[in-house]
Amino acid sequence: MNANEMKYNYLIIGSGLFGATFAYKAKQNGKKCLVIDKRPHLGGNVYCENIEGINVHKYGAHIFHTSNEIVWKFVNSIVPFNRYTNCPVANYHGELYNLPFNMNTFYQMWGARTPSEAQRIINEQKSEAVAKLNGREPQNLEEQALILVGHDIYEKLIKGYTEKQWGRPCSELPAFIIRRLPVRMIFDNNYFNDKYQGIPVGGYNCLVEGLLDGVECRTGVDFFSERNELQSVAEKIVFTGKIDEFYDYCYGKLQYRTVRFETEVVDVPNFQGNAVVNYTAADVPYTRIIEHKHFEMFGQEVYDCKKTVVSREYSTEWNDGKEPFYPVNDNRNAELYAKYKKLSDREENVIFGGRLAEYKYYDMAPIVERALGMDV
Ligand code: UDP
Known about the structure:
By secondary structure, the protein is of the alpha/beta class. It is built from 13 helices and 16 strands. A hairpin with a 2-residue loop joins strand 6 (89-92) and strand 7 (95-98). The site of uridine-5'-diphosphate (UDP) has 13 residues, from helix 6 and helix 7.
């Protein structure tokens, strides 16, 4: 079949935020798209399931945050966003600490009441780690954390949580992961430094539905089981799945972390008083408990909805049959990905986008930004 006879300009594989935003843009530019997804629903990992009137983030908590005004205006043009501000709390053996690391945390940890008191303690604690570095840059997450906040915070709030989340010692993880978290010498529990954050009013499904409005979509379709037929329906492919799978694992398998959720309905209106509570001790098997209603219900609304839904999150290594959530950022995987990337760079008719296709620890906003920036 030549390009003129093809039915679609783009076959978009995967209806997560990259695929859906790309489809939106393509449609606006008069292009015809077919979106397929192997799951029974659209939206990829931002999909929510409604349980007891509460939008449950089925594939993990998603909080949209960005400083990019264009991205913020764009998503709000699809659906307005609410004022949710992420202020997670850490529970370490029953002791509660505010996150990210800020004056509230330092007060809870050491009784430090002023920035200079807190800074003095951090400096004292980090001096040993700084001396060990002997002038070089921190090479791993442990070194980075110790020079950022000292050993008390590292031991109580970082080490156990991180090793549970990634299944690897902090000394073998890249430093940049912990640099995602702000350290603030003010009393401010806002987890993100970004100018804008929130949750779509009515939930993420409204965002996805808005993006895919008027686009032909088919769910329950696995690209790999009908690859030849599907590839011939469009001039170009937008692939948002695992890049190693796209190339039949020809260089070997990339590693991912997966997350398993134990979700339950609890017969109280307010279970933990916050959307996110991280369990940072190594001996608690889950990493965090999400209480979904707090993303979208505020004040009296929390109590008007008599029940609540909570999910305990367990992080494990990915293998076939599980959902891949996080790329594993170590050297072996970086080198392996570079090989696949070389193959993908040679493709003229395939666009790779999103966490799995670019093997990148992306947040949502940069994904939308990248899709909006594509030459469609
Ligand atoms: N982290 C931590 N303690 C916490 C929360 C986060 O040590 O209570 C570290 C951990 O290494 C994690 C990283 O910070 O991988 C980034 O956390 P973030 O909340 O950004 O992860 P995500 O929401 O993407 O799972």
